[in-house]
Design a protein that fits this description.
2 copies of one chain form a homodimer.
Chain A: E1 14-19, E2 22-27, E3 45-46, H1 48-64, E4 70-75, E5 79-82, E6 84-85, H2 87-92, H3 95-119, E7 122-127, E8 129-132, H4 134-140, E9 144-149, E10 155-156, H5 159-163, H6 171-177, H7 183-189, H8 198-203, E11 209-212, H9 213-228, E12 247-249, E13 252-254, E14 258-263, E15 268-274, H10 284-290, H11 295-313, E16 319-325, H12 328-340, H13 345-362, E17 367-372, H14 383-388, E18 391-394, E19 403-404, H15 422-426, H16 432-439, E20 444-445, H17 446-451, H18 461-477, H19 480-490, H20 498-513, H21 517-520, H22 525-528
Parallel strand pairs in A: 2-4, 3-6, 4-7, 5-8, 7-9, 8-10, 9-11, 15-16, 16-17, 17-18
Antiparallel strand pairs in A: 1-2, 12-13, 13-14, 14-15, 19-20
Amino acid sequence: MINFQTSPEQYKHWRLTFDGPVAKLSMDVQEDVTLAEGYKLKLNSYDLGVDIELADAIQRLRFEHPEVKVVVVTSLKPRIFCAGANIYMLGSSSHTFKVNFCKFTNETRCAIEDDSHHSGRRYLAALNGTASGGGYELAIACDEIYLVDDGNSAVSLPEVPLLGVLPGTGGLTRLVDKRKVRRDRADVFSTLAEGLKGKRAKEWGLIDGSFATSKFQESIDSRVQELVGSGASDPQVGIKLNPLPVEVKPSGMEYKYVNLILNREQRYADLTVRGPDTNLPTAPEEIHKLGDAYWPLQAFRELDDVLLHLRVNEPEIGLVCLRTEGDAERVLAMDETLAAHRDHWLVREILLYMARVLRRLDLTAKSFFAIVTPNSCFAGNLFELLLASDRSYMLNSEDGKVEIMLDQLNAGALPMSNGLSRLQSRFLATPEKVDEILAHQGGFVTESAEEAGLITFAPDDLDWEDEIRVAIEERTSLSPDALTGMEASLRFAGPETMDTKIYGRLTAWQNWIFQRPNAVGPEGALTNYGKPTQAHFDFKRT
Amino acid sequence: MINFQTSPEQYKHWRLTFDGPVAKLSMDVQEDVTLAEGYKLKLNSYDLGVDIELADAIQRLRFEHPEVKVVVVTSLKPRIFCAGANIYMLGSSSHTFKVNFCKFTNETRCAIEDDSHHSGRRYLAALNGTASGGGYELAIACDEIYLVDDGNSAVSLPEVPLLGVLPGTGGLTRLVDKRKVRRDRADVFSTLAEGLKGKRAKEWGLIDGSFATSKFQESIDSRVQELVGSGASDPQVGIKLNPLPVEVKPSGMEYKYVNLILNREQRYADLTVRGPDTNLPTAPEEIHKLGDAYWPLQAFRELDDVLLHLRVNEPEIGLVCLRTEGDAERVLAMDETLAAHRDHWLVREILLYMARVLRRLDLTAKSFFAIVTPNSCFAGNLFELLLASDRSYMLNSEDGKVEIMLDQLNAGALPMSNGLSRLQSRFLATPEKVDEILAHQGGFVTESAEEAGLITFAPDDLDWEDEIRVAIEERTSLSPDALTGMEASLRFAGPETMDTKIYGRLTAWQNWIFQRPNAVGPEGALTNYGKPTQAHFDFKRT
């Protein structure tokens, strides 16, 4: 079982150090500390274990170190920044694992950009040596890139020429969409195994500058000081992200607010999120005091962890039935607090994190059905779980009231990758409905929810059990691949952004290539890399 | 060899009839007239041969029948509109063919929308029977959809539940992006093999209306009359699209203005477009008189044909070296005429067609290098060939002048699928350069072209031959799959549109699925469809 929880004291591959408003995130991969057998992480190459630490570091920077204004991403290895994803690891991994590995690393790089964009922290890639493949892709997720000019170090994307696969961690998209490198130059660069060095790399827009070895550290420091600026450092004090308590059982996972029950035989899971069990504070200072025990942070950290667990450790689970429990009024009161104090750094970080977790759900290759029953609590931020689901079933009960509730957090505070709120995405055909629904006072009982278009199906007591059972059986009988492609298409109506391009166009092409004999067959380039044997291609263009 | 040229007299599967401003395009597929062995085109299912006729009909409508305001797309078979792409054809086709088949059918449906959007012709799908899979996808490419209410006929996308593949001809994208069907309903609909009928289909936005069998024809006629409007029909008279003269040789194809030389051993082709050989008329009436012999129409029809030929009949050709020859001044003069009269229906249609052909090039899974030499004619509309190329090489000659020239047609008259001009796409990083370059008087000789960022490389006489030779050798040695994915990513920087979503996200996922054992393996759903054997899935979610 792959565990996504870690902390700086446990890091094997990164060092995270602080100097007032400047953090330094240094890569120093231990080649023998790998997640699986059969490869060594030479030259700061990485596997999922290395990236789990990176994701953790970026997350902690935001919550534990709000005083940090600039993050320097660099390496402790001489002459090499990072050689990218380990090729032997890729070559020996299953298709499913490769795809999930790339998705996670993409999310980590998008999290860097989310921090830069929304929280204003600047990320500076200080390339003290060659950055190739995923190494350069990590660099272009940063705001600025500086490369040492030692006559040898280069930036490169050698995947196409050396491995017959794509630089699939956002590289091709960011090259032309973020750094806006001219497409013909991007073409040349992406087919040039050795990459480009200082002057030309700068001229082509691949880096922001290069400095001679003797001046490298000094020049980086000076640029960092410029980015820090002269203003006084904020006196904010972070909160600690403690390990999540979780009980792992054969049949699922039990967190404080999140419960997962695996129905392995039927290939579906019941995932329940419980609302707050006490009244929550309304002042930022009290929230700060609660720290990671504050419901929105703890519950969404648990949800994040369980989604990653489902993706990587439970590939045969094809459907997740999302359920909620608790007191809706408490959720709405909490959302009111979050909305009122969204300019407070901690509340802002919590909201941005909740949005990232929900996007992780949008991007999870499992079907999601929201199941709404009398004890459900699909209210406010938890209502986003219903909106993120592929379908929803809400009991139309004669006996008890079943209700869903929206609030201001459904109005855009938790955007999808396409930049829209889930409510906007739902009502593309009738955008006026979004405001109507948001203006609605009180909850929606089943019939009014159906009428408002907020749910998919509303079976009555008599049909309920059968209908849910049949829906689950039907869904889990379908081709898992067709469902993945279908959901990836239907979930993202409306505008596209750099993020959706990375998860849509780029990722889908990479997944395609990750199955092609020219890459992964016995004569494929990925299979034969580093071996005495040579790749042989079927040259038919598809 | 698959031939993309046809004409209404030769149609086997469609009937195209006219009644003043109304055209009727009726599907009546001959089940035994197939492009390959091993399947029968039952129930108005189609193969590439059927779609070649459809594409031809839509093209002819625009040029030969400008008087047509409304096109009714219907079927001559009782109780069935169209059952979509033939499943046995798909099951027995190579991966490469499947992908090219889907691309062409997508382009045909986009051409319908292009006609509707830019030329105002309304397309009305009169579904006199069930429209399933590609049949419904054809319907949603139309502006309006009406379904007969006979208690039986339905619209459906049964690909996911029955075949384990996607409705990949734009269906999933148009469902949520064009018809803006709510995503949860789209999910239900796309997993429901039997589809939906009249009332519910209308309520969910899948169709625009349904009429009882007895009133169907009358109701369609009445809606058609509304669309035609009461205004007098335009007195415009179309031009005839004659068969393209082409000499097919073992080593290539020779058209009047387009020449293709296949270097099969080295897996690349030289594709030369020759500019006009005489001075061209400047008045629309004279252009009309010239008809399909007018250079822009003839040359681009030839280019269109040769691109389709390369895609489908020459899969092993991985690289196309684009060359031009001729008198640049003539091209510029012609472009001036086209720009001056772009409101004239024929000129408008010609420009829209040129744009479609160039988009076909953008979407062709081959590498393109533009090669600029002293006798080249990369000017105006022909300069788009250079901009559409992945790279360009321009000789920096001591002896003769080598020049490229831009004009107003490079300013947006020939947009890419992403809605930008190729010049805008090229200069995303420095948008101010677009206007500077367009304002530049006269041509750009090699050095100034390089400085302006218009070309990739400018080798001198000494290096030229070696550099081109090595560039070709290097390109054709790379994995064709990695190149396809890389080019599809780099060619479309900037915004995304419904078209780019169809060719990017949707198509890439479909291509992925078209390789998955769950679809095409011995136990896959596509393989086993209609056989006594059953599909068995590997249920791992990827």
